[in-house]
Design a protein that fits this description.
Blueprint: H1 4-18, H2 21-32, H3 35-38, H4 61-76, H5 80-92, H6 98-110, H7 114-125, H8 133-154, H9 157-176, H10 185-196, H11 203-210, H12 219-242, H13 244-247, H14 251-277, H15 283-303, H16 308-318, H17 323-336, H18 341-353, H19 358-371, H20 375-389, H21 395-412, H22 416-425, H23 433-438, H24 441-465, H25 470-476
Helix pairs in contact: 1-2, 2-4, 4-5, 4-6, 5-6, 6-7, 6-8, 7-8, 8-9, 8-10, 9-10, 10-12, 10-14, 11-12, 12-14, 14-15, 14-16, 15-16, 16-17, 17-18, 18-19, 18-20, 19-20, 20-21, 20-22, 21-22, 22-24, 24-25
Length: 477
């Protein structure tokens, strides 16, 4: 059968004209079974089955293009594993098109195969002149952002910073060259996200990457890195506002305002850690950042009052100045979306920090448990058990439950607060006064193990915060 070209033409028509990927898959499969597509070079008239392109005698471009088209159909149908197999078959047929490599990498990115996707995008960027350089740069930056987020959760801060800087470099080239045609909203948004994720990296890691001595905390370098994200978000806001009348949609403006508010709030959190060491420094700057952040969230709410994340961000920005208004903002977010785990988490932490009843705190944390299995949910539950331990005779049992909650949090994410909480509670487990008086072998061994676990987690906490937490450093010393 030498009618593969016809089957492929029908498949292309189904995709372009009818948008029917299911039918196109059948036609592409039939085409791949035909001799003129499958292996034309071994046919008697094979020279007539291929387009006479320079260098095409060493590879079957017709077959690889058909496999690539089939892979695209599988991807649109959500069959990602089949799409990957099709792309691999296209590669075995000698396909070297940059657009094909970008599509292959995008499938791997959607499957979470970040390292493999980054390699594909890098291969495209190695070709100096091609129209897919921007797509590859954007895809590579997306890979690096996801990889950095994963590494931060695993405590691999150095690798995370390398990923963030590589993602920024891959996109910054287009801005430096003044190519206005690629300055899309999504590009500026991604650059802002890359810089904002620097909040999760300890300041000393920034010093090491710059080759500076680690005797300084490096907080200013970290703040400078995060603030670049604010500048990019503000540039995005200007462009969105300039084209708002064309789109007739305020949702993009509200999203940009939210991003700016979150970035400024992250800067305020870093400033707050400075104040933990010296309450007389940067006090005015901290208040100014919190006020500015709240203003941006209020502007976003004015444009879109049904966005729960805007209300949640406003509650975080107002917590230090007005705890009651902050709780109102979190409750408003839950009225809009009962599944907003950020609002549940912040409301629970607000109740724990305040004078709320234990029953109210338990109700909020139970609601959070039904929404998301997040690290902060387990941290909030651990803090609740610690608070209950002061009002009950079963103090050791409550502390044991708190310690187990912090361990559960660390199984999902290496959050510094969970490390500190575990170090403070694990050393007191089952060490009752009657057991300590007996001084038996089991008690002595349990005491030694608990103390070692406590110091180990406290050291990990200080490593994750670059020793900026003065209280934790005092406890360790």
């Amino acid at each position: 059968n030498t009618c593969g070209w016809a089957w492929r033409a029908i498949g292309d028509a189904k995709v372009v004209n009818d948008a029917s990927d299911e039918d196109a898959v059948l036609h592409y499969q039939n085409a791949l079974r035909c001799r003129d597509i499958e292996n034309p070079l071994q046919q008697t008239l094979g020279v007539f089955f291929t387009i006479p392109i320079k260098g095409s005698t060493k590879s079957n471009l017709e077959c690889s293009n058909t496999w690539s088209a089939l892979a695209g159909c599988y991807r649109r149908l959500g069959k990602y594993s089949a799409s990957l197999r099709a792309y691999k078959s296209a590669s075995g047929s000698g396909h070297g098109n940059c657009e094909y490599f970008c599509a292959w990498a995008q499938v791997e990115l959607e499957l979470g195969l970040l390292d493999d996707a980054a390699i594909r995008f890098e291969q495209v960027l190695m070709v100096t002149k091609n129209k897919n350089r921007y797509s590859a740069s954007y895809g590579l930056a997306s890979c690096k952002l996801l990889s950095a987020s994963r590494n931060i959760g695993e405590g691999k801060f150095g690798a995370a910073l390398i990923d963030l800087k590589r993602g920024v470099d891959s996109l910054s080239l287009f801005f430096n060259d003044g190519e206005e045609e690629v300055n899309f909203f999504c590009t500026m948004k991604l650059l802002g996200d890359l810089h904002s994720h620097g909040y999760g990296i300890p300041p000393t890691v920034f010093l090491t990457s710059e080759g500076l001595p680690t005797d300084d905390h490096g907080t200013e370098i970290k703040l400078s890195f995060i603030k670049r994200g604010e500048n990019m978000y503000k540039r995005l806001l200007q462009d969105v506002e300039a084209k708002a009348q064309t789109f007739n949609d305020n949702s993009l403006i509200a999203a940009a305002l939210n991003d700016i508010g979150i970035n400024i709030l992250l800067q305020a959190c870093v400033r707050n850690k400075i104040l933990c060491g010296d309450s007389s420094r940067q006090d005015g700057k901290l208040e100014s950042l919190l006020k500015e952040s709240a203003e941006y969230f209020e502007k976003a709410i004015d444009l879109n009052q049904l966005d729960p994340l805007s209300w949640c961000g406003l509650g975080c920005a107002l917590f230090s100045s007005d705890a009651i208004l902050s709780q109102h903002a979190f409750c408003k977010a839950l009225q809009i979306d009962r599944n907003c785990h950020e609002a549940w988490t912040n409301l629970a932490l607000t109740y724990i920090d305040g004078e709320a009843k234990i029953s109210h705190v338990e109700e909020v944390i139970d609601g959070l448990t039904q929404v998301a299995d997040s690290p902060l949910m387990w941290i909030a539950r651990g803090l609740l058990f610690e608070k209950k331990s002061t009002d009950t005779i079963n103090c050791e049992a409550m502390l044991q439950n708190a310690s187990d909650s912090y361990r559960a949090s660390l199984q999902t994410n290496r959050h510094p607060v969970a490390l500190l909480g575990l170090s403070m509670t694990c050393r007191r487990l089952d060490l009752r006064m009657d057991s300590l008086k007996s001084r038996d072998a089991y008690t002595l061994a349990a005491t030694e193990i608990a103390i070692k676990e406590s110091f180990a987690n406290l050291k990990l906490f200080l490593d994750a915060t670059s020793a900026n937490d003065t209280d934790g450093k005092i406890l360790h010393d």
